[in-house]
Amino acid sequence: MSSALPVTLTVNGETLTRLVEPRETLADFLRRDLGLTGTHAGCEMGVCGACLVMLDGAPVHACLTFAVQADGAEIATVEGLTENGVLADLQHAFHQRNALQCGFCTPGMLVSAQGLLARTALPSRAEIRDALSGNYCRCTGYEAIVDAIETVARRRAAGETAAPFMEEPA
Amino acid sequence: MNAPLGSLDRPNSYIGRSVPRPNAKRLLAGRGRYVTDLVLPRMLHAAFLRSPYAHARIASIDTEAARAMPGVRLVATGADLAGLCTPWTGTLDHFKGMKSAPQLPLPLEEVLWSGQAVVAVVADSRAQAEDAAEAILVEFEELPPVTDIDAARTPGADRAASGIEDNLCFRTRLDTGGLDAIFAGAAHVVEEEFHFGRHTAVTLEPRAILADWDAGEGKLTVHHATQTPYQFQDLYSRHFGIAEASVRVIAPDIGGSFGMKLHVYHEDMAVIGLALMCRRPVKYVADRMESFVSDIHARDHRVRARMAVDAEGTILAMDVDDVTAIGAFSTYPRTSAVEGNQVVRLMGAPYRFRNYRAELSVVFQNKVQTSQYRAVGHPVACAVTERMVDLAAARAGLDPVAMREKNLIPDEAYPCDSPTGYKFEALSHQACLAKLKALIEYDALRAEQAALRARGIHRGIGIASFVEISNPSPAFYGIGGARISAQDGATLSITPSGEVRCLISVTEQGQGTETIIGQIVADQLGVAREKVRVVTGDTETTPHGGATWACRGAGIGGETALQAARRLRDNVLALAAAILQASPGQLDLRDGRIVDAMGGAERISLAEVARIAYFRSDTLPPDTNAQLSITHHYAPQGYPFAFTNGVQGCHVELDTDTGLVKILRHWVVEDCGRIINPLLVDEQVRGGVVQGLGAAFFEECRYDAGGQLTNGSLADYLVPMACEMPDIVVGHVETPTADTVLGAKGCGEAGTAAASAAALNAVNDAMAPLGGRIAQIPMTPARLLKSLGKI
């Protein structure tokens, strides 16, 4: 164990400076130091995808990234991506299609889906399944998730915009 | 079939309607509140030193260096905790002759599996606790590990635990008589030896517990990622000597459970003790490596089976020998014998034959404990039965579907019982099979298969019929002495604003319990669904009940909610009648309004009735009984269990060079009785299927001969990924149970029950022309290549 180091980074649009232990992961930093518990730790070895966050616009495993490595980076978590509306159409589609059960994998799934749709506008079902292979889900069997992402891809390609997610009635 | 509860075109008709889950929105926004996320003031963190040996004596423990480490508040051994917690024994009285050694939170003298927690450390942070755990010195003296199920049962074998006289935990025999003669005289006898890989639930949120002891109040509050908060309230109360009413167990959002989180774990009991000792909140979250060596495993079975068939292909008899290995202790309080018991009792359940013999041996060994995991015993019973049916069909020269059409219990033959003693109310195997055959376009698929075989493409089609046991009565645990409730309770209130609160004992792990309870309450009361708030998972606020397991949420929890809502509705209408000087029978409650039953004209709003009852009782006629809260309990009566049924189909393509199998499609037709929410039922089925396909192709806890788990990480233990899974077609037949008004039976385990069986049959079907044959899951590429004689 060595002494804490300062890191300065932007999380969900807010720039902040904190002292962190060199061994602290970005996942622990977000969850413990910042209270952003929407980022989940499922395996802590970069396999399950529950901890995915956006780092400079690309999905990364927060469990494989040390907090000190995020110095100078721009991080977006599910909380921030909800508040700025980036995920609203995906969240809406997931909700309508029941593409989540326990919800533990869901923030990572949403980040992964957002990353996929940024790379590929209209992925095939096989491409969606392939892109989700770093996201384990034990509840749904994946099909509903694939359906929801496919729906959003079509809607985005058609230029549809989504209403803010939390304001819709259930 | 029962009449529908109501048509879906009237207001508040929610039973049978696909509606999304209101409580899913905060999960989507990252606002779930899992135990993993919880932080309490002055909270400490626990970590455990674990045994590196499968079996060893603890010679000494030196904690001095650990106690001096930064942030360390407490280091506790088995002896420290044994004074706080009475031992437990994982047996049930109705399993005659069953035995298991007593268990404590941490061991005193002997460790019984690799990964068993030995010493606990409590520190200011988890990292500090783990640092200190590494500084503990434990001297172990290795003892011979018991790992082989046959060696374990030989006379004079090494024992898996010194506290047991031999390695046989439980044995039972079923015999309808005369089997030897039937087999001797049968036109065909088929045999197989099956091996089922031990696997585990791998909930994405690992086990998590946060215990908080308030010494001033004498109150223990436990935030516990579990399906069954009432069971744990009872256990913590009794084993730690705390009054039941002073123990509160809260199960908030749970990141998956699948049965795994309803067992007593040594670490969890230790954490209660640590919180008592520290007098501060203590939290423990298993990391993934710890999960693999401490979460229950399941389905470690070897089954030898024979089936006798007459010349026309009619099944005459089955004879099975099941040996299952369960670890060194039987789990508590549900035991590790239920799975094997269900294997031998569910065997052959869809079929007409009446002659059956089974022997079950439940064996101790030095591995992680096994116990109930989703579809307990079903996948084993179903895979054995369905593979034997296919083998028998081939011998009798029948197509697999024709074989099943010939041998399934006819839908009109119910009620009936099984040779193993189960009583079936009304099942629909034939209707389900007919529907599956149409969905699959079976004949066309067979024609395509034949055409492709000619081109060297090896596809297989597998069919598997199943029954699923659900809604258990006290015959399951209560009569065995376990304090696990078969009933559920709900407290239902009209709030002062005319909204509805439902506090109910069934729990939510994402399957949609709260959603369907809300649908039922809204439907039966006559209010908009948005007006109903359902609260679950807190022993302090909800009535005591069985909670959610064995698919009892819809069947028992749903009926509880239905009956409660009807009682509350009667109270509302009686009160409204008093206010309106009308007769309750002339009134109805629709969409939050009291209306004339005939004609539907509004008389008074529910909100106004509530306002008067709560704030202006002075204006009510004398002796008006304004009861806008009711508590209602319901326990299943009639049949001891509800059974559901269905059939699955699996279509695969086998690469005979690599042994890789591509799952092309999977179909399920199932009958869960009344469907409350089709959207949720279908997703339960799909999720269940994928867990079954995981077992069929990927998931296995692999041990070496010394009892070491060799693939205990999520990189090494394979769970199904999106790219490996097919789209799954789900169809329904609806045969509501007449035991309840609601008629729901349950759907959570149907997918898992038969998916691996259908896959096993499909792969064997693909290999048949090549002379390959497999009776082991998971069907890994190496095993398939061996079956094909390629390696």
From TrEMBL, chain A:
InterPro entries per UniProt? 2Fe-2S-bd (IPR002888), 2Fe-2S-bd_dom_sf (IPR036884), 2Fe-2S_ferredoxin-like_sf (IPR036010), 2Fe-2S_ferredoxin-type (IPR001041), 2Fe2S_fd_BS (IPR006058), Beta-grasp_dom_sf (IPR012675), Diverse_Oxidoreductases (IPR051452)
- Which Gene3D superfamilies does the record cross-reference, listed alphabetically? 3.10.20.30, [2Fe-2S]-binding domain
Is-annotated flag, keyword NADP? Answer: no
Query: Where does the record place the 2Fe-2S ferredoxin-type domain?
Result: 5-81
* Record's keyword terms, sorted: 2Fe-2S, Iron, Iron-sulfur, Metal-binding, Oxidoreductase
* Signal peptide start-end: none
The protein's name is (2Fe-2S)-binding protein
UniProtKB/TrEMBL annotation, chain B:
Question: What's this protein's name?
Answer: Xanthine dehydrogenase family protein molybdopterin-binding subunit
Q: Which residues form the Aldehyde oxidase/xanthine dehydrogenase a/b hammerhead domain?
A: 29-144
The record lists the lineage as:
Bacteria, Pseudomonadati, Pseudomonadota, Alphaproteobacteria, Hyphomicrobiales
Which Pfam family would be a valid example here?
MoCoBD_1
> What species is given as this protein's source?
Ancylobacter oerskovii
UniProtKB keywords: Molybdenum, Oxidoreductase
| Keyword Oxidoreductase found | yes
Entry's transmembrane regions: none
Q: Which domain of life is it from?
A: Bacteria
